[in-house]
């Protein structure tokens, strides 16, 4: 087994010892910002009061609203002259969250990302094509610098423009791509529509992330494009991509515990949940100087996976992101996550790559409608078979979410497409009728 970084080989005891030292240093650094200085003082937390990893729970939780309230620079812990990069959320629904980096922070981030890529078999001989967006979005530059740290020929293609993406892949014999899952399915379907076989592209590895997706969706990507697709997890508040990554066994994402402390809490009570139980992921940076973040509520729902990984790394494994605490839908009093619906749909070979969940209201009652694209070869069959398929999809979704949906089978390419993150839900319940 080959490793990029010696920290990948650390024992559980070595990881815990490093985390305690780095948590103390992080608390000391964070206290230099007015926000954390006051917050930690009120909680009675000092570097010296951190005696075990359990003491992390004495630190107050940090929310996205806290970061927004400190916009634009209320959380920096070094002189501005030491900052070399900032990233920000889109801010389309309000004040964006901003994260700053020193050169040391960027170096650490690039090392973590290179570690992730090396773990799944990427080497300097590979040609890497980044099909994710650049700019304030962290996904593009984060993985870009990881690829360059590995020594790969790196093509900064950016998002969208499918014809150009395919041309670059073919002309430069791209072997590794960073791509959003929904766009990977879109790209493969676009090639098939043109009578081409997506599996004939030279790609052998795809790094997928940035949006929740099911195991069924991942397998479709692999089968369609003829490659291995590895799940990535990251968020801008924790740098971006490179927080956790699958190894070649694809049985959970190793969270790099030498750089982060990960907790799983009950999103309502804030208390820790037992290992193996789903809850909200809370993250603390351990190696960031410019703007450390303590106990950040990611709103992402996941769980720690029990047992050891065959790869030999003992860094704890996270399950794939199952959804977001703030993306939960309440229909007829039932809590539903869009990922539950996708998991069912992707299990039907007749279903295409696109679907849409529409929430409506009929006589003051909630209606869950699921619009599903059907592959052309199945859509042209007789109405009895389509009716039977609709009934089977309806029954399977009901069994999963305990709510009976109205299922509409629609033709391939009839639902809105996006070359960015897929929009899977439309909530029309509060919109007045026209």
Automatic annotation (TrEMBL):
<keyword id="KW-0436">Ligase</keyword>
<dbReference type="InterPro" id="IPR000873">
    <property type="entry name" value="AMP-dep_synth/lig_dom"/>
</dbReference>
<dbReference type="Pfam" id="PF00501">
    <property type="entry name" value="AMP-binding"/>
</dbReference>
<keyword id="KW-0547">Nucleotide-binding</keyword>
<dbReference type="InterPro" id="IPR011880">
    <property type="entry name" value="PA_CoA_ligase"/>
</dbReference>
<feature type="domain" description="AMP-dependent synthetase/ligase">
    <location>
        <begin position="81"/>
        <end position="283"/>
    </location>
</feature>
<comment type="pathway">
    <text>Aromatic compound metabolism; phenylacetate degradation.</text>
</comment>
<dbReference type="Pfam" id="PF14535">
    <property type="entry name" value="AMP-binding_C_2"/>
</dbReference>
<feature type="domain" description="AMP-dependent ligase C-terminal">
    <location>
        <begin position="333"/>
        <end position="429"/>
    </location>
</feature>
<comment type="similarity">
    <text>Belongs to the phenylacetyl-CoA ligase family.</text>
</comment>
<dbReference type="GO" id="GO:0016874">
    <property type="term" value="F:ligase activity"/>
</dbReference>
<protein>
    <recommendedName>
        <fullName>Phenylacetate-coenzyme A ligase</fullName>
        <ecNumber>6.2.1.30</ecNumber>
    </recommendedName>
</protein>
<feature type="region of interest" description="Disordered">
    <location>
        <begin position="413"/>
        <end position="434"/>
    </location>
</feature>
<dbReference type="InterPro" id="IPR042099">
    <property type="entry name" value="ANL_N_sf"/>
</dbReference>
<dbReference type="InterPro" id="IPR028154">
    <property type="entry name" value="AMP-dep_Lig_C"/>
</dbReference>
<feature type="compositionally biased region" description="Basic and acidic residues">
    <location>
        <begin position="418"/>
        <end position="434"/>
    </location>
</feature>
<dbReference type="InterPro" id="IPR051414">
    <property type="entry name" value="Adenylate-forming_Reductase"/>
</dbReference>
<dbReference type="InterPro" id="IPR045851">
    <property type="entry name" value="AMP-bd_C_sf"/>
</dbReference>
<comment type="function">
    <text>Catalyzes the activation of phenylacetic acid (PA) to phenylacetyl-CoA (PA-CoA).</text>
</comment>
<keyword id="KW-0596">Phosphopantetheine</keyword>
<keyword id="KW-0597">Phosphoprotein</keyword>
């Amino acid at each position: 087994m080959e490793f990029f970084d010696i920290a990948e080989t650390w024992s559980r005891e070595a990881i815990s010892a490093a985390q305690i030292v780095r948590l103390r240093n992080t608390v000391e650094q964070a206290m230099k910002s007015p926000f954390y200085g006051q917050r930690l003082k009120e909680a009675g937390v000092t570097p010296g009061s951190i005696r075990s990893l359990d003491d992390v729970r004495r630190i107050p939780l940090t929310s996205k609203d806290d970061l927004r309230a400190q916009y634009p620079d209320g959380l920096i812990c070094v002189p501005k002259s030491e900052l070399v990069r900032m990233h920000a959320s889109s801010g389309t629904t309000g004040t964006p969250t901003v994260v700053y980096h020193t050169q040391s922070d960027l170096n650490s981030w690039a090392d973590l990302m290179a570690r992730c890529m090396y773990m799944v078999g990427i080497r300097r001989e590979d040609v890497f094509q980044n099909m994710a967006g650049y700019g304030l979005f962290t996904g593009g530059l984060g993985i870009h610098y990881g690829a360059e740290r590995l020594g790969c020929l790196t093509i900064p293609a950016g998002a969208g423009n499918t014809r150009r993406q395919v041309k670059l892949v073919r002309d430069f014999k791209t072997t590794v791509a960073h791509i959003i899952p929904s766009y990977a399915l879109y790209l493969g379907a676009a090639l098939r529509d043109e009578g081409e076989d997506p599996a004939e592209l030279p790609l052998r590895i795809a790094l997928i992330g940035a949006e929740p997706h099911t195991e069924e969706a991942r397998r479709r990507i692999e089968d369609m494009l003829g490659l291995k697709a590895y799940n990535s997890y990251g968020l801008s508040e924790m740098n971006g991509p490179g927080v956790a990554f699958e190894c070649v066994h694809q049985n959970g994402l190793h969270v790099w515990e030498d750089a982060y402390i990960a907790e799983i809490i009950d999103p309502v009570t804030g208390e820790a949940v037992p290992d193996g139980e789903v809850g909200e992921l809370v993250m603390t940076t351990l190696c960031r100087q410019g703007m450390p973040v303590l106990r950040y509520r990611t709103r992402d729902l996941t769980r720690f996976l029990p047992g050891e990984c065959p790869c030999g790394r003992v860094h704890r494994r996270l399950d794939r992101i199952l959804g977001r605490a703030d993306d939960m839908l309440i229909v007829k009093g039932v809590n539903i996550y869009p990922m539950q619906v996708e998991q069912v749909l992707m299990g039907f070979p007749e279903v295409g790559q696109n679907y849409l969940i529409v929430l409506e209201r009929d006589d003051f009652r909630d209606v869950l409608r699921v619009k599903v694209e059907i592959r052309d070869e199945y859509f042209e069959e007789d109405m009895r078979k389509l009716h039977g398929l609709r009934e089977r999809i309806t029954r399977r979704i009901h069994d999963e979410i305990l709510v009976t949906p109205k299922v509409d089978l629609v033709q391939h390419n009839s639902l809105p497409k996006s070359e960015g993150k897929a929009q899977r839900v439309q909530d029309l319940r509060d919109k007045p009728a026209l």
